[in-house]
Amino acid sequence: MGAPSIIERLGILADAAKYDASCASSGTAKRNSKGSAKGIGSTEGMGICHAYAPDGRCISLLKILLTNHCIFDCHYCVNRKSSNVRRARFTPQEVVDLTLSFYRRNYIEGLFLSSGIIKSSNHTMEQLVETARILREEHDFRGYIHLKTIPEADPELVHQAGLYADRVSINVELPTDSGLTRLAPDKDARQIEGAMGKVKNDVIEAKDARKRFRNAPRFAPAGQSTQMIVGADAATDADIVGKASRLYDNFRLRRVYYSAFSPIPDASAVLPLKRPPLIREHRLYQSDWLMRFYGYKPGEVMQATEADGNLPLDIDPKLAWALKFRERFPVDLNCASREEMLRVPGLGVKAVNKILASRRHRTLRLDDVALLTQSITKVRPFICTVDWRPVMLTDRADLRALLAPKQEQFELFTA
To answer: Would the keyword Secreted be found if you checked this record's keyword annotation (predicted)?
Structure first.
């Protein structure tokens, strides 16, 4: 049997990369090829298609592994050393050629490149850096590059990656140290966090240098991100929220991504037999949003969890918190602060900003609020206006059932 063609290898290595969710391209520096004789690519302007899958994953990047060969044996990974999967490998030049070819066809806006560990962590990191170097230096590529870095690699190699990439990321893999020790024996939590701390310091130093010297090199202008696997171990949502909060605070991460565990072929006996509900991943993203944009503290998000430490699946975390702290409601929209209104289920940041702007000119009525929000039914039990007061509605014992989205059974064959 001959060696697989580049198209066959692309199929294998693109499929192997699908488990990594941390590929969004937000926050990078603006660059384009105007004024350059040989530059190619752009992170802005016409021809850039930002496409997202229904579960929120970005699909506008060429997202592949350099190789799915790996010397590590992480139980949850389909590419682990003991896994019986078809293996493939690209050279750095082949990845460069694919990236440029896809970009010229307007299929992608950039490259997301990760890899299994081949030979050693340093050797693999050198290959990843070489790919980015060829794109930037030999082809003057101005598009987006996201490199998945390896915490076990030499810090200087990770630093070089940040000089070429817009964003770098290091996966913490699992929410708890005990889970990591049990399911990924080749990885070390302290080493991972040490590498993330080094990247954080490099980003800060590069920004400071840019303030003093205009031509100072950029270092990962889109920052760093990480990913946690949900449902592979016994960690609760409270554990995950607490871990994410510490990562944001300690390492100034741009994003923490969540990836629901997916059963893999020939799985280890220590792994669960079923994947967690995908809605659990969605609820964690919602809780992340509450902390980043709505002013909720991690402890408050944890208060929205059920007795088992997990967020409810039938309602969103914001509504779950409001139902537990009904004494904070109703909120008078004609005089409440922005922070108080952001706690109201059904009111998003844009709606609250519109309410603040509108009430400068008029006293708000319930009909006015209905024009500013998507679901006045969800909002009504938690607000007051000049013509509306919920009276006993806020304290109804069946309020959760009234506000929970109705479960709808879809039919395969409909008229």
So the answer is: no
Regarding whether 283 and 263 lie in a shared domain, the answer is no
Residues 137-165 as b/e (b if ≥16 CB within 10 A, e otherwise) read eebebbbbbbbbbbbbbeeebbbbbbbbb
117-137 pLDDT tens trace: 999 999 999 999 999 999 999
Output the CA–CA distances (angstroms, integers) from residue 38 to 62, 136, 264, 376, in the order listed: 22, 11, 44, 54
Q: In 253-361, which residue ranges form alpha helices assigned H by DSSP? A: 278-293, 298-303, 317-324, 338-341, 349-358
Q: Is 95 helix (H, G, I), strand (E, B) or coil?
A: helix
Q: Which domain holds residue 287?
A: 277-324
Residue type, 97: D
**Predicted confidence (pLDDT) at residue 47 exceeds the cutoff of 90:** no
Model pTM score? 0.86
* Whether residue 350 is found in the same domain as residue 388: yes
In angstroms, the CA 17 to CA 63 distance is 6
Q: Locate all alpha helices (DSSP H) within 66-188, ordered by sequence.
A: 92-104, 121-133, 155-164, 177-183
Could you tell me the two tokens for 185?
């024996």
Decide if 364 contacts 385 (C-beta within 8 A).
yes
pLDDT of residue 263: 81
